[in-house]
């Protein structure tokens, strides 16, 4: 078993690129690949070749169809994608027609003023002729520039949006009730592309029951709710019914949610940083990661059925009211209250301790006999 000391870390997983390999292969197969004879070489230069000062420059990328080049461009950062227009006449129109990848944080630094950056967003959306792939905006715009956000989301350039992110920068440790009490509902257009979204981060808003109950996200795989006010009924509806393909769920600073029950045949990862009091994993056949991201909160976790759970953490060792139950086995803080059956699926475990205690760690490992990695971090309580 490997034992490491690790600090908190965060990872972001990008969406898998559409499979363009098969299309590229089909294009290649449709091309005459017969070896050229000297006579054929003298009659015409190879496809994609240009002569410059007597030298032949082979450009195989430009031989790809426009829609494949557009897909490639859409995965580039905004400014780099726009710069492809100057590569050659062949590329001049591609960026405007490619799926749009618009990240507010990557706008040119020269337009640092908010008004100038918003005007630039207006200009990009007005000029773009393709559909949308990704939109990333500050969450505060939902309140301070709600009309502009509504207009952007209704733009034709953001049709068929796949990735929507309203990112939030908040205090490291804040009282959720104080942060959430002033939140307002987002513009109705925020869910205009719910049928095409594959990843969504919704922050700094109040999700009203009437709106949530009507939502359906048939292709959504990753959902993060950060600094959001939502009822238990609506949150339960999103997880159990509205997102039939949901794989990754993050709940951060979600106030007024005391109880959550997970029944999902698709969820693989759950992250919690909230004042949630009780979490019940009733039936999650594919769940691999259960991450408790808040050291200073108390919660009870009941795992009834999660046969593939491999990663668990971080368990706070200084809160006796933090309890995690696997069947008849009860762990309170870092101490085992009852050990009836061991948990053989867990291979990676993370714990928090105010003072490292080797005996406590060794005793805890009795519950996880197949453990391969243990991350332990000393935390100074305030």
Describe the structure.
This protein is α/β, with parallel strands linked by helices. The protein has a domain at 60-98. Helix content is 23%, strand content 27%. It contains 12 helices and 20 strands. β6 (163-167), α9 (176-180) and β7 form a beta-alpha-beta unit. The longest helix is centred in the N-terminal third of the chain and has 14 residues, at 114-127. The protein is elongated, with a radius of gyration of 26 Å. Mean pLDDT is 80; it is low at 6-55 and 171-180.
Topology readout:
Blueprint: E1 2-4, H1 21-29, H2 38-43, E2 49-52, E3 55-58, H3 66-74, H4 78-83, H5 94-97, E4 100-103, H6 114-127, E5 132-138, H7 141-144, H8 146-153, E6 163-167, H9 176-180, E7 199-206, H10 209-212, E8 222-229, H11 232-242, E9 248-252, E10 259-263, E11 269-273, E12 278-283, E13 289-292, E14 300-303, E15 311-316, E16 323-326, E17 329-332, E18 335-338, E19 348-353, H12 358-365, E20 373-378
Parallel strand pairs: 1-20, 4-5, 5-6, 6-7, 7-8, 8-9, 9-11, 10-12, 11-13, 12-14, 13-15, 14-16, 15-19, 19-20
Antiparallel strand pairs: 2-3, 16-17, 17-18
Quick rundown:
By secondary structure, the protein is an alpha/beta fold.
Give the structural class.
Answer: alpha/beta
Strand order, sheet with most strands: 1-20-19-15-13-11-9-8-7-6-5-4
**Range of strand content:** 25-35%
Query: What is the number of strand segments?
Result: 20
Distance between the termini: 32 Å
Helix content: 10-25%
| Form type | elongated
How big is the Rg? Answer: 26 Å
Count of helical segments?
A: 12
User: Averaged pLDDT, please?
Assistant: 80
* Unreliable residue runs: 6-55, 171-180
Largest sheet: 12 strands, parallel
């Amino acid at each position: 078993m490997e034992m490491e000391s690790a600090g908190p870390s965060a990872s972001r997983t990008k969406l898998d690129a559409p499979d363009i390999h098969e299309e590229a292969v089909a294009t290649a197969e449709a091309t005459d690949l017969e070896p050229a004879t000297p006579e054929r070489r003298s009659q015409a230069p190879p496809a994609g070749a240009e002569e410059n000062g007597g030298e032949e420059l082979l450009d195989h990328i430009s031989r790809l169809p426009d829609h494949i080049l557009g897909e490639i461009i859409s995965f580039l950062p905004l400014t780099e994608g726009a710069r492809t227009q100057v590569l050659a006449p062949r590329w001049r129109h591609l960026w405007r027609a490619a799926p749009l990848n618009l990240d507010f944080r990557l706008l040119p630094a020269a337009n640092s003023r908010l008004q100038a950056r918003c005007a630039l967003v207006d200009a990009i959306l007005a000029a773009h002729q393709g559909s949308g792939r990704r939109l990333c905006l500050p969450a505060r715009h939902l309140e301070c520039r709600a009309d502009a956000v509504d207009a952007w989301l209704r733009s034709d350039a953001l049709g068929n949006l796949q990735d929507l992110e309203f990112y939030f920068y908040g205090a490291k440790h804040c009282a959720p009730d104080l942060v959430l009490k002033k939140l307002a509902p987002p513009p109705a257009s925020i869910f205009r592309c719910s049928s095409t979204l594959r990843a969504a981060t919704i922050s700094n808003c109040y999700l009203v029951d009437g709106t949530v109950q009507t939502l359906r996200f048939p292709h959504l795989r990753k959902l993060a709710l950060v600094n959001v006010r939502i009822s238990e009924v609506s949150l339960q509806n999103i997880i159990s019914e509205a997102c039939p393909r949901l794989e990754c769920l993050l709940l951060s600073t979600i106030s007024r949610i005391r109880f959550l029950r997970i029944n999902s045949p698709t969820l693989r990862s759950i992250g919690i940083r909230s004042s949630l009091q009780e979490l019940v994993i009733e039936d999650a056949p594919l769940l691999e990661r259960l991450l408790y991201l808040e050291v200073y909160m108390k919660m009870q976790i009941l795992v009834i059925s999660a046969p593939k759970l491999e990663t668990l953490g971080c368990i706070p060792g200084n809160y006796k009211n933090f309890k995690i139950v696997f069947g008849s086995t009860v762990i309170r803080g870092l101490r085992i209250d009852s050990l009836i059956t061991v948990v053989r699926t867990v291979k990676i475990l993370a714990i928090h301790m105010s003072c490292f205690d080797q005996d406590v760690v060794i005793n805890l490992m009795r519950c996880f006999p197949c453990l391969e990695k243990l991350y332990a971090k000393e935390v100074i309580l305030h």
